[in-house]
Amino acid sequence: MEKKPLGWTNEKISPLILGSWEFGTPSIIDENNAIKAIQRAIELGINAIDTAESYGNGLSETIIGRAISKFKREDLFIITKVSIDHLRYDDVLKASEGSLKRLNTSYIDLYLVHWPNHYVPIRETAKAMERLFNEGKIRYVGLSNFSLPLMREFREHLSKTDVAANELHYNVLFRDVEKEVLPYMLRENIPLLAYDALGLGYLIGRKEVRNEYRWYVLARETYIKNLEPLIEEISSIAKELGKTPAQVVLNWLVSKDNVFAIFNTTKEDHLKENLGSLGWSLRDSDLRRLDEAVKKVTIDYFAR
Ligand SMILES: NC(=O)c1ccc[n+]([C@@H]2O[C@H](COP(=O)([O-])OP(=O)(O)OC[C@H]3O[C@@H](n4cnc5c(N)ncnc54)[C@H](OP(=O)(O)O)[C@@H]3O)[C@@H](O)[C@H]2O)c1
């Protein structure tokens, strides 16, 4: 698989990143199958894996640690995150030790602050992250769910390194990041790691929803109106191109400079299907059709 440059770093990683929240959720997938799924993704060319200390309370990291033990560590790019309630200086250091142990590795490639915490000074977290960088425990410092002002502020407190990525909610429908933070990141050559790339499946017309997602999807169903035309447009573009809807929505992301798409799957056929989002491009006319269809969807966060 052709790797993609990761912003200002000298790294190249797979344009698709394997997510792992589900791998830390035993009601969705058991440990042995999760290990197999991760190993299969790596064998098929995905070298970047996204996890967090909070996924399954560390279980996701533990499973990844087991899964990657049969591969060369330097061929992989492991991303994990420190939780919102561990952002005091000493807590960051402690949390990283836990992640290193569970991942069974001596370094984390990219260590993200999972969510900003407005009760902890940004400087304090940034200094702790930089210490981990200086000690070689993490290769790059990154953020997740950080707005433009908070991202700027965080960068001001780093002196030896810079923010190497921001992981954000971004897909064909949810494009808020395009207003402010993404243009800034593109100017600064800082990559965006997009989560919710498939909208948990609802963007591609998937009807059945896992119990574990139910609350999330219900919340969305109350504030997203008129989604059907977008799902139909994605599906008809897919048909014309001989692709699948999942491939269209993933391609929409990975065709952009400095944007990487995170997805999660428990199934080998979905994994292979998602890999088929690489190596081709949507036509300009497809992009315009998607833009038009998105305009028809209404998102009302105050809907009840
Ligand atoms: N930084 C953050 O705050 C944050 C927030 C949310 C998520 N994340 C990261 O992003 C990862 C992905 O989470 P997400 O919320 O973005 O979920 P997602 O990947 O958009 O959706 C996952 C769902 O899509 C289904 N799926 C995958 N490929 C499919 C295909 N080709 N056809 C039909 N269904 C398909 C999976 O079911 P099957 O198992 O049946 O394929 C699963 O139910 C997480 O694991 C996590 O690593 C980060």
SSE inventory with pairings:
Blueprint: E1 4-5, E2 12-13, E3 16-18, H1 31-43, E4 48-50, H2 59-68, E5 77-82, H3 89-103, E6 108-113, H4 122-134, E7 138-144, H5 148-156, E8 163-169, H6 181-187, E9 192-195, H7 214-223, E10 224-225, H8 228-241, H9 245-254, E11 259-263, H10 268-275, H11 284-296, E12 298-299
The protein binds NADP nicotinamide-adenine-dinucleotide phosphate (NAP).
What's this entry about, in short?
The protein is built from 11 helices and 12 strands.
3D architecture notes:
By secondary structure, the protein is an alpha/beta fold. The chain has one domain: NADP-dependent oxidoreductase domain (TIM Barrel, Alpha-Beta Barrel). The protein has eleven helices and twelve strands. The strands form three sheets. An eight-stranded parallel sheet has the order 3-11-9-8-7-6-5-4. A two-stranded antiparallel ribbon has the order 1-2. α3 packs across α4. The longest helix is centred in the N-terminal third of the chain and has 15 residues. The termini are far apart. The mean pLDDT is 96. The chain binds NADP nicotinamide-adenine-dinucleotide phosphate. It comes from Saccharolobus solfataricus (strain ATCC 35092 / DSM 1617 / JCM 11322 / P2) (Sulfolobus solfataricus). Pfam families: Aldo_ket_red. InterPro entries: AKR, Aldo/ket_reductase_CS, NAD(P)_OxRdtase_dom_sf, NADP_OxRdtase_dom.
